[in-house]
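Take a look at my tokenised protein here and describe the backbone shape.
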Amino acid sequence: MVARDPHRFANELDDGAIERIIARLESRARDEVFSRLFDKYASYLEAAPGGQVLEVGCGTGATSRRLLRRPGFTGKVTGVDHGPPFIDAAGHFVSQEGTAARATFMVGDAHDLHFADHTFDAVLAHTLISHVTDPRPVLREMARVTKPGGVVAVFDGDYSSLTYGHPDSGLGRTMGVALATASFNNPRIMRDLPRLLLELGLELQVAWGDAVAEIDQASYFRSFAETYVPFVEKAGLLPDGTAKECLSVQHQMMDDGTFFACCNYYTYIMGPK
């Protein structure tokens, strides 16, 4: 069986799988790791405090909502995602938080954004580009709808670096590869982005990397494994029962304080040429 990125093919998932992903996105949004990584680049989105910001691949709107809560941002956010259940969830959550008047969420295709040229002061893709069918048209569309002098921000993981500790180091490496293969269309895309900028109408302003590691205890990587192990099993990437057994070992390592997991994440701040 071929692995199919559950975010890319979200419209083919059953209700249970959709609920798991929504729970993961919201759990991640409450995690200190998520907060720190987003806040590190959020100030670039506030260059025009009352401006218009577009989030491409917004999911449940967690990143957009965090931007709306920032004291320095008084503008409006539009979120686009191809999954209707995610857009429904985004509308629900933003209403709960009382910022619905400053947010619009809609179903749309990141490869073909239905907005006029130069519409937004800033456009961001937070953990989207690793999931899309083809990063090039997505990045080109992000550049097209950004105003001259505006900001294009891309944040994502280099999921080929994803690793979980395991008493059997070989099995641990195999499990990391299986999780990346089952969960991401483009696990290495952040390594390729510098080469793509020349052809996409984007100019790099600043970029940096962060190693996200959890040692002893886990929340961020616990949720990751619990969400995506079922997709590893469904894709048949490991012998029957192996993925569940690996997850059980991870839980035991969390309990006894021997847990380890790590992945590299990168942020690119760009502008349209």
